[in-house]
From TrEMBL:
Pfam family, one: DUF4437
Biased amino acid composition, Basic and acidic residues: 330-366
Name by which UniProt lists this protein: DUF4437 domain-containing protein
Region described as Disordered: 327-406
Domain of life: Bacteria
Length: 406
């Protein structure tokens, strides 16, 4: 599995010698995220000299995207925006990168292995895709959320798994006041522009890898819009959450005042109060998104940033306690007696038990060790609840984590 990374600027990663087997030349890589279980990784690579490798077969589904400079594949040279997708086990032609070229390099479901001159492997997928994305036109996203203003260029879509890589552009003023989670992972590298959202500021060269089912949103797009390359390991279904809150706590045994015991509790509302507030521009855009949704017939609630207004976790706890009392609970008596009597204790009503929203095989399949493992989803399947990922790996030099996506 890959850790939740949100939000990191590439300059906060250290350089390593690039793991490009069988090639000639010198290059360095920044490891944006790595799956230590199957070898999948996302890399930023700089070529310090001309680098080249002959034809052969990759051990992983492999992608190259040119940020700056040029790539030559099979005799065809492509500059900024050049894209190659070489499926695992499919013969790829010779590739070279000019000195000074900067690329994104993705390997999925395999390691960096490369077999020179090898033949097609049994069961290998489709042929290699070569695109000049700069020459492609932008298409409007048919379901852009509450507002129009998102545009897309599809680079690769797997017809079986739904895995896809695309360029996405959000025009200035596009916003979404809701939080979403998905059945698949989502990762993005910002090519240019600026967008604010709950985990921080998407600036040039910022990156996130977000496992399946992690909530995110409250997007606002700044001057000039923003463009990023975005990947998902399945079809991106949007499941929305509003009135979100998180509260957690416990009892300190040996670290309260003067080293003694103490009960403690904290909510996402508390954390939001200590974060830099959303700008007036942000708030205006989020309210515009809400107004648009209501004009379309949506029943969306008002957007209130965490740290402002009433703490929703306190309201939820109070409502649960009221429900427990109405259901015959007896939280007000404190006698110590066993539970062999024939009346039931009522439990607070917190809504749906997240377990009833899981896929039936979630706790028995190969991904059962990871709640944020993506799984195929189709209409009619249970919609899994979000998982809590309150403190992702985060950049020290960019971003603003306001906790409202927890």
């Amino acid at each position: 599995m890959r850790p939740h990374v949100e939000l990191i600027h590439e300059k906060d990663y250290v350089w390593h010698g690039a793991e490009l087997i069988g090639g000639e030349g010198r290059a360095s890589e920044r490891r944006l995220s790595v799956d230590e279980e199957d070898g999948s990784c996302s890399l930023r690579i700089d070529f310090h000299t001309r680098w080249g490798r002959g034809p052969g077969v990759h051990h992983a589904d492999t992608e190259y995207f040119v940020l700056e400079g040029s790539m030559t594949y099979g005799g065809r040279t492509i500059g900024r925006g050049g894209y190659v997708h070489a499926p695992k086990g499919v013969p790829a032609e010779a590739v070279t990168f000019a000195e000074g070229t900067r690329i994104l390099h993705y390997r999925e479901y395999g390691d960096a292995g490369f077999d020179p001159g090898a033949a097609r492997r049994p069961g290998a997928g489709d042929d290699v895709i070569v695109l000049d994305s700069a020459a492609m036109t932008w298409d409007a996203v048919p379901n852009a959320g509450p507002m129009p203003g998102l545009f897309i260029k599809y680079l690769h879509v797997d017809p079986v798994s739904g895995f896809y890589t695309r360029l996405v552009h959000s025009q200035e003023g596009w916003s979404d006041h809701r939080l979403a989670h998905h059945p698949c992972y989502e990762e993005a590298y910002t090519i240019e522009g600026r967008m604010e959202y709950n985990f921080g500021t998407l600036l040039d060269n910022t990156y996130f890898f977000r496992p399946a089912r992690v909530k995110h949103g409250h997007f606002t797009t700044m001057e000039g819009g923003v463009t990023w390359i975005l990947r998902s390991d399945g079809e991106l279904q949007n499941w929305y959450t509003q009135n979100e809150w998180v509260r957690w706590g416990g009892e300190a045994v040996n670290y309260g005042p003067n080293g003694g015991r103490m009960r403690w509790s904290q909510s996402s509302h508390d954390l939001g109060a200590g974060s830099p507030p959303r700008s007036e521009r942000d708030l205006a855009d989020l309210r515009a998104s809400l107004a648009f949704a209501r004009r379309q017939g949506g029943q969306d609630v008002d957007f209130v940033p965490h740290g402002q207004g009433t703490d929703k976790s306190v309201l939820a706890v109070a409502k649960a306690m009221d429900a427990a009392r109405l259901q015959g609970g007896h939280s007000d008596h404190h006698d110590h007696h066993d539970h062999k009597h024939d009346h039931d204790h009522a439990h607070p009503d917190w809504g749906a038990d997240p377990h009833v929203l899981e896929h039936p095989d979630e706790r028995t399949d190969s991904g059962s060790h990871n709640w944020a493992q993506g799984r195929p989803w189709k209409q009619g399947d249970p919609i899994p609840a979000p998982v809590i990922s309150s403190l992702p790996v985060r950049s020290r030099s960019a971003g603003r984590w306001s906790t409202d996506g927890m």
